[in-house]
Amino acid sequence: MRGDVCQHDGTLEVEDYARNIAATYDSNGIQEPFSIIDLDVVKRNLDLWNTALPSIKPFYAVKCNPDLNILKTLSAYGACFDCASLPEMEKILSNGLATGEEIILAHPVKSRNCIEYAIRNGIRTMTLDSVEELRKIASITTEARLILRIRVTGFESLVDLNKKFGADETTSKLILHEAVRLGAKIHGISFHIGSGVENCRPLALSLANARKLFDYGRMLGHPISILDIGGGFMATTTQIFMKIGNFIENTLSSCFGDISLTVIAEPGRFLVTDAQYVVACVSQVILKSVNGEL
Questions:
Q1: Domain count, the chain
Q2: Taking every annotated instance into account, which residue ranges of this chain make up the domain Orn/DAP/Arg decarboxylase 2 N-terminal (predicted)?
């Protein structure tokens, strides 16, 4: 299968552009699917993010869609990158899309090879959620800017990542103490409420829990100044997302307004879901009667 990716050039409506490509395929005897990427949509979604959430720096989740055209567009318009693997880091760095300072290695469990590659290439910000991962990283370097991922519970989501990732309160405090013993520094707290949460209450609860660990970690001497509110943001209407952004900004101000803070997030589908179209060949149409209706 060819699986061609065609970049929409903006001169035609996407549907007309797709018809032109399909006609070219037909004339050349090609009966394979293709996809179309509309980079104007990517730019528009990034603009919406920056308008609704001006204090939160987006680190695009590369795993969501690693198409190089998308990555280049996001880089050109100021986004940073959330990488979860060594190949993702390599792709961003080899194409000159970001410096190490503009990348977070956000998977809580990493191989030694992955950690060593990150450090060699100036990627010092990385996530963990266990004492074991802390000790692994500390055995390689104590200069990493460690982000402690906490577990958030008590609500429904379409994809609940907290069943796999995130330290509970007891483990979080243990990690903070063990980091002091090892000479490592926790620079931030992160959480991910999951994908498809339909109200803002889980986010408010998560921010309150994060603030408690901010204060606890700072009491132990950790230079905690980064808050990562994760991903799971759904592509929605401009009006709805502006309301969500207003809620998040106000809640951040309420929970963290008294301290200096860098806030980041890891949006993926929000930026790219509605920017890509898949066009497939219909081999045959068969009309069938179901309950007397076609």
A1: 1
A2: 41-272
